[in-house]
Amino acid sequence: MKKLGSLFLFLFVIIESQAQTAADRKAILAILDRQTADWNAGNTTAFMNGYWQSDSLTFIGKVGVTYGYEATLSNYKRRYPDRASMGTLKFTILKLEFQAPTVAYVIGKFHLTRPKVGDAEGYFTLLWRKMNGKWVIISDHSS
C-alpha cells in the first residue's frame, strides 16, 4: 500500500511540474509577443517591460556589456530613434528551456524589416528569472 501511495505522489509531482512548465512557457512566450507588438507600435518604453527593472540587468551586444535597466532603455532609444530605424520586428524562438522552476533560457532569432534604412537580423540568448510570480529577462545577449 505504501508503494502505491508513493507512486501516486511521484506521478502527482511529475504532472504538477509539467503543468507549471507549460504555464511558464506560455507566460514567457506571451511576454515576447507583447514585446513584439510594443516594438512594432514604436514604443521602446513598453518593450522594456519584459526586462528586469534593476541596475543588475545585463545587455550584451556588439559594443559590449551594458548594466542596468535605464542604461539599456537609453541605448535602445539612442540606437532606434524613430519608426524607420525600428522597423517591424519578428522573433523566431529556436529553444526555450527551464534550468530550474524559476530560471528559463531562450535562444531565438530577430528580424527587423526596415525598408528605408535596410533590414537587420541576428540571434539572441535571453536568461529569464521568475521573481514575485512574474517572468523577467535578467540578461540579454543579442548580436
From TrEMBL:
InterPro entries: DUF4440 (IPR027843), NTF2-like_dom_sf (IPR032710). Residues 1-22 form the signal peptide. Coiled coil: none annotated. Keywords: Signal. Transmembrane segments: none annotated. The keyword Transmembrane helix does not apply. Pfam families: DUF4440. This is DUF4440 domain-containing protein. The lineage of its organism: Bacteria, Pseudomonadati, Bacteroidota, Cytophagia, Cytophagales. Residues 28-137 form the DUF4440 domain.
